[in-house]
Amino acid sequence: MAEPEISERFLEGYAGILAEVAETGRRLTRDELETRRALGREAAEAGHQLRALVRRHLAETRAAWPVEAARSSSADSVLAAVEQVVDAFAEGFERAQRLTVRREEAARREFIDDLLYGRSDLGRLAERATRFGLRLSRAHAVAVAAGPEAYNESDAVPRSVEAALLARFGGRKILLTTKDGRLVCIAPGSQPDVLRYFAKQAHAATDGHQVAVGRPHRGPGGVVHSYDEALDALDLAQRMELDDPVLYAADLLVYPVLTRDRQAMADLVRSELGPLKEARGGAEPLLRTLSVYFDAGCVAAETARRLSLSVRALTYRLERIHQLTGSDPSDPMHRYTLQTAVIGARLLDWPAKEI
């Protein structure tokens, strides 16, 4: 993009100041310095580069340099005036730039909040998205990474992940940000490699914490839908004690299906597992035993190893579950019902919460 032509307005009065300083040796007045700052602000808002503006001031200095000043002791005064002018001009320019950056950051944060909360008019949201490199008419997917601490965009972890993504996918339409202390990456749904790479980098940068990836969805509302799926996957992993480093919402659809009829699931949990509360120590140890047993493929030796039990102690627990519930975990006829009830118990946070 070509640099806009520098207007003579930004040098207005400069040659006259140099001539007067050469004659009197005075320094710039407060009003003159404020005028230079104001011109610097205008130049920044007009999209000029400070380097080009300083070069233009120096060229004007050479053109307007009083001949008599070059041959007298007033040369020091003229050079001091040049220094004051350029310094004041640059100060105004930099103030305007900082203000612009703050405005851009505020606009970006407002856009991200609206996008991930599903607020604002969807048509207007799609228009604003183009400014940040997103085309919301297409499908997008969202990945979310939790960490050992809350992050904001200026922290080292988000910046290192962003640097890795830009180095590999510099030409892609990607938005990396933070939300509620988590890392968030929004990418086109047709480019799953971006989110896979983000997940790899974020998992490493957050010391092995989990990353969840929502499914691709189309339109302005698609981003918030995918974001919600990723958040739900992280929450589900915690409740179900899933330890996969990367969780894909598409692989976890069975869980929301199981809880779609919450009342029916609660009835199943109470009916099938409620009697475990009568055991010594309550239901939790036996519920944990069932959960690990099913995760281990119903292999007793592997289950005992994971629970740090002897096979004999595990067998006793399974028999006790059979006695209390009337369902035998080792019987394929009973196994499906028990396993579904165990999943329901984790999803409903039973027995910690009454259902």
TrEMBL record:
It comes from Streptomyces pratensis (strain ATCC 33331 / IAF-45CD). It comes from the Bacteria. This is Transcriptional regulator, CdaR. Residues 118-236 form the CdaR GGDEF-like domain. Belongs to the CdaR family. Signal peptide: none annotated. It holds the Pfam family GGDEF_2. InterPro entries: CdaR-like_regulators (IPR051448), CdaR_GGDEF (IPR041522), PucR_C-HTH_dom (IPR025736), PucR_C-HTH_sf (IPR042070). Residues 286-342 form the PucR C-terminal helix-turn-helix domain.
